[in-house]
């Protein structure tokens, strides 16, 4: 689910060491803007890192970490009778369109975490859990833009919500593929250049219907802004 409105190094566990080796230490350090964000869990920090790796080199991400995700996903769903319907094939339209979108994505502006924005993301994820909701609206009816504007008035902003995953790579790749979402809104948030989204809040919380939910909020701050400064 997504909406958009205008106005300490970690020990990473990679699903494929071979693919991880195709990325340089310098690229990982550059992507790891959340390393010192003590208010984030390791998986939440890794969400920021994976989103930044996409923006550093989109095509390389497609052929490495996204491949890992698809292979692992297909292996997990093989046990189901409707495996042929569930699996992600190489001619899947969302998979093939993604390569077109990722070609040329290189060294885009990175995402930086923010504690206030993360607090808002966490509050909404907990609200979704507490009230068994799957919407951008709070249980009191507030739209995401109203929630975020209290701390970030007159900013471009957006929100991605993912259900069913607690693993950072799974969450990011699920949103990046955006299967079943014709508008590709989650994908375009991750690849954003138009609205200059550069500040993120991230929270992974349990959910009664989907086991897990992850809320990622995006805000456009002045270009010089960094939570680490």
From TrEMBL:
<dbReference type="InterPro" id="IPR014044">
    <property type="entry name" value="CAP_dom"/>
</dbReference>
<feature type="signal peptide">
    <location>
        <begin position="1"/>
        <end position="20"/>
    </location>
</feature>
<protein>
    <recommendedName>
        <fullName>SCP domain-containing protein</fullName>
    </recommendedName>
</protein>
<dbReference type="InterPro" id="IPR035940">
    <property type="entry name" value="CAP_sf"/>
</dbReference>
<keyword id="KW-0732">Signal</keyword>
<feature type="domain" description="SCP">
    <location>
        <begin position="100"/>
        <end position="210"/>
    </location>
</feature>
<dbReference type="Pfam" id="PF00188">
    <property type="entry name" value="CAP"/>
</dbReference>
């Amino acid at each position: 689910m997504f909406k958009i409105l205008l106005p300490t190094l970690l020990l990473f566990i990679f699903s494929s060491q071979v693919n991880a080796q195709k990325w340089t230490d310098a690229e990982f350090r550059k992507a790891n803007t959340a390393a010192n964000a003590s208010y984030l869990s390791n998986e939440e920090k890794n969400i920021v890192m994976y989103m930044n790796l996409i923006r550093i080199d989109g095509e390389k991400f497609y052929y490495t970490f996204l491949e890992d995700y698809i292979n692992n996903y297909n292996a997990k769903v093989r046990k189901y009778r409707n495996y042929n319907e569930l699996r992600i094939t190489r001619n899947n339209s969302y998979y093939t369109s993604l390569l077109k979108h990722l070609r040329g994505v290189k060294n885009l502006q990175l995402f930086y975490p923010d504690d206030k924005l993360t607090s808002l993301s966490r509050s909404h994820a907990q609200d979704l859990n507490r009230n068994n909701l799957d919407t951008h609206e709070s249980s009191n009816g507030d739209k995401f833009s109203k929630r975020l504007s209290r701390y970030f008035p007159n900013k471009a902003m957006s929100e991605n919500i993912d259900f069913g995953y607690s693993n950072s790579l799974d969450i990011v790749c699920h949103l990046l593929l955006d299967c079943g979402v014709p508008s590709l809104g989650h994908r375009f948030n991750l690849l954003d250049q138009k609205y200059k989204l550069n500040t993120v809040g991230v929270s992974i919380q349990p959910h009664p219907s989907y086991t897990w939910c992850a809320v990622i909020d995006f805000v456009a701050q002045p270009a010089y802004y960094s939570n680490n400064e």
